[in-house]
Design a protein that fits this description.
Layout lengths: L1 H14 L16 E7 L1 H19 L1 E5 L4 H10 L4 E4 L5 H5 L3 E15 L6 E2 L1 H9 L16 E5 L6 H9 L10 E3 L2 H10 L3 E6 L7 E3 L1 E2 L6 H5 L6 E8 L5 H11 L1 H9 L3 E2 L2
Parallel strand pairs: 1-2, 1-3, 5-10, 6-7, 6-8
Antiparallel strand pairs: 3-11, 4-8, 4-9, 4-11, 4-12
Helix pairs in contact: 9-10
């Protein structure tokens, strides 16, 4: 699986056009607009920091939709969005359409448990068991005699977090019985309130009352995310139908520039470079 992630990342980098950082014009034409749709980990965490600075420099207004990665990618191809955000690698079918991809950072999905849960480390097989329904009680993992309450986003939402987690942690197997909520942040709140809870969510969503377990002995630390030794590492992508130009090129350039990368880190993620 780690080799698969390295291969996917290499393919993504191969599709990335040379986007050099450009200084913003002194006066940008008024009325230029872009529409972003896609991953909420990007729209809810990174763009609130990045867009005010980008819009001030460029004069470009960016409308943000939050449909999730799968629906956002469809919107981009349909033409109702200029750029899609993904917080996962492209599937082979998606790569076959030859989109243009810019990697703006890396993220890790933590497997979060209640801070009172004594289980601190899991194997990949155990993580899979928790979310496929094969493991139903924490005592099976050396914890207390307490039912497992696995929580995810809505399974039909086409969100990138779900698909990335299913591929990386469940090896493509379907989810078992889970508690479905609107957003990973909602799941973390539920886990904080339930000692039997467990949920996958980006490490940028860290909150009081929960903590991530290590997987195969490796923690979701920045160095393990950057070199992909942590199992649940995923890229953060901006995807367009063709090489970006005009306002769209300025947006991609900004997000991959040192200033944009600093905002990615400020949002709790790992810079792409």
């Amino acid at each position: 699986m780690r080799q698969h992630l390295f291969t996917i990342t290499a393919l993504l980098l191969a599709t990335l056009p040379a986007c050099g950082t450009r200084s913003a014009p002194a006066q940008a034409p008024a009325g230029r607009r872009l529409v972003y749709d896609g991953a909420t980990s990007i729209s809810n965490r990174i763009l609130p920091l990045a867009l005010p600075e980008f819009e001030k420099r460029s004069g470009v207004t960016v409308k943000v939709e939050r449909s999730g990665a799968g629906k956002g990618l469809k919107a981009m191809y349909f033409g109702s969005a200029d750029v899609a955000g993904l917080s996962r690698a492209l599937t082979p079918e998606e790569r076959d359409r030859k989109p243009v991809v810019a990697i703006i950072g890396y993220d890790a999905l933590g497997v979060w448990v209640n801070e009172q849960n004594p289980v601190r480390s899991l194997t990949r097989a155990q993580v899979s068991g928790l979310f496929t329904g094969k493991i139903t009680n924490w005592k099976q993992l050396g914890g207390k005699d307490r039912p497992v309450v696995a929580c995810t986003e809505h399974l039909l939402s086409e969100r990138a977090t779900l698909e990335a987690f299913r591929q990386l942690a469940l090896d493509g197997a379907p989810f078992g019985p889970v508690k479905e909520l609107e957003d990973p942040a909602d799941c973390l709140k539920a886990v904080a309130a339930d000692p039997g809870g467990v949920a996958p969510a980006t490490t940028a969503y860290a909150t009081a009352g929960v903590r991530p377990v290590t997987i195969d002995g490796i923690a979701p630390d920045p160095q393990h995310i950057r070199n992909s030794t942590y199992l649940l590492t995923r890229p953060l992508l901006l995807v367009t139908r063709e090489p970006p130009s005009g306002a769209l090129r300025e947006f991609v350039d900004f997000m991959t520039s040192p200033d944009g990368q600093a905002l990615v880190v400020q949002a709790g993620f790992v810079a792409a470079r």
